[in-house]
Amino acid sequence: MINIYLLKPNKKNLNLFLVIGALFFTLGIVDFCLNNFYEKNITGFLPGFISFLTPLIFGMIGLYFIRIEFSGIKLLDRLNKNINTNNFNAALSISIIILIIFSITPILNWFILDATFVGENKEACTGGGACWVYIKTWFNRFMYGMYPNAEQWRVNATFIIVLGLMGLGYFFPLKFKKYLTFYYVILLPIISFLLIYYLISGGAFGLEWVETGAWGGLSLTFIVSFFSLIFCFPIGMMLALGRRSDLSVVKYSSLSFIEFWRGVPLITVLFMSAVMFPMFLPDGTYVDKLIRVIVAITLFEAAYTAEVIRGGLQALPRGQYDAAKSLGMGYWRMHLLVILPQALKLVIPGIANTFLALVKDTPLIFVVGLLEIVGMLNLAKTNPEWLGFAMEGYVFAAIIFWIICYAMSKYSYNLEIKYKTER
Length: 423
Known about the structure:
Layout lengths: L1 H6 L6 H24 L10 H18 L8 H10 L3 H27 L18 H13 L7 H17 L11 H22 L15 H27 L4 H15 L3 H11 L12 H27 L2 H9 L4 H16 L1 H14 L9 E2 H9 L8 H29 L5
Helix pairs in contact: 2-3, 3-5, 6-9, 6-16, 7-8, 9-10, 9-12, 9-16, 10-12, 11-12, 12-14, 12-15, 13-14, 15-17, 16-17
C-alpha cells in the first residue's frame, strides 16, 4: 500500500509528499551548486552522463511528488498550475531554475561585486567587473547629447512642463472630460512644439540659439518618440477608416499609402528623408532634419497603426453599425461615438505593441546624424580615452529602454483592464 502511495502522490498523505518532494528538489539544487561553484560532485560515483543529469533528475522527482491537484494550499496549487502541470513542464521549470542559478553569479559579480563605481577616468577601472565610472563620466552626454552644459536647464524645464500638462488631463472637471481628445491630440502637441521651439531651441527671449544638430541623448529620444506617437495615432485612424471606405478613391489611396510604407524598411525611409528629400525642395527652402525625421517615423508607424485599428473595426459585429444608423447617426457621429470607442478597446494590446516598436526604432536616427542615446553611446565608445567599455554603455541603454517600454506596457495593460467589457 505504501508503494502505491509513493508512486501516486495524493492529498491524503499531503505532508509526507511535500517533505519528500522538497528534499529531492533541494538535493538537485544543492548538487548543481556544489558541482559548479565548489567542484564537489556528490554523485561522482555514477556514470558521467547520469552524474551530469542528476540535478535535473532530482528536481523532476521533487516536483513530481508535490504535483497534487486541489491540495488546499493556495501557493502549491498555483505552482502546480503554472509550472508543474506535467513532467515535461517540470523538466523545463527545473532547467530554467538551474540556468538562472548558473548565470546569476557571474552577472552579479560583473554588474556589482567586482564593478568600479568611484573614479574620474579609465585608470580607476582596475577590477574585473563593469566600469560604471564610464557611465558617470559620460552621463550628461547620454542624457543631453552635445547640448551646452550651461543651458541644460532648458531641456529639464521643458520636459517638466510637458509632463505636468500631460497629467493635467486627469484633473479635468467632469463637464470638460469630453474635450480631453481635443486637448491631447491638438492642444498639447501645439503647446509642446512651442515650448521646444522657444525654450530648447532658443533664439528668443534672451536665450542662446542651440541648433538641433547639438540635441541628443535620451532627451532627443523622448522628443522624437513623443511627437511620433502623438501624430501617428490619428493619422493611422484616418487611414484605417479610409481603407474601409466605400469611396474607391479614398479606399485605394489609403491602401496604397499603407502598403507603400509597410513595404520599405525604416532605415531607408530615414535615409530618404535626410538625404534625398532636400533635393526635391525649391531653392532657398529648408526643413530641419529633426522635423524630417519625425515626419518620416510618423508616416511609417501610422501605416502599422492603421492596420491594427482596422483589425478592431473588422472585429465589431455588423449589428453595431446598423444600430447606430437606426438612431439617425451620420458617418462621423457613428464612428466617433459608437464604432471607434469599441474598436479601440479591442486593439489596445496591438496599439501598445506598435508604440513600443516605435520607441525601440528611434536609435535608427543615428544613421542620419542625430545622436540620441544609442548614437551617443556609439560616439563615446570610439573615444580614445574610453576604448573597450562599449558593453557598459549598451547595458545602460538596454536598462533605460526596458524601463521605458515596461512602463508603457504596464500602462496599456491597465487601460485594457479599465476598459474591458464582457462581450
